[in-house]
Amino acid sequence: MITPQSLHHTQRQALSALAKGARRAFCLLAAAAMFTSAAIAGPEVAPDPKAVKTESKPAGSRFSGLLNVDISDQYITPRGLNIENEGVVIQPMLILFLNAYKSSDPNAFINDVTLFMGNWNSVHTHAAGPTPGNWNETDPFWGISTTFAKDFRFDITGTMFISGVNAFDTSSNLSLKLSYMDKFLPEGWSLNPSIECFIELTEKATIVLNEATSDQGFYFAFAIEPTYKFKDIPLIISLPTFFNVCDDSFYQKLDGSGGGAGVALVSTAFQVRVPLTCIPENYGKWSIYAKYQYYHLFNQGVLDGNFMFGGNSGEYHEDMGQVRGGVTLAF
Question: What's the pTM?
Answer without folding.
Answer: 0.81
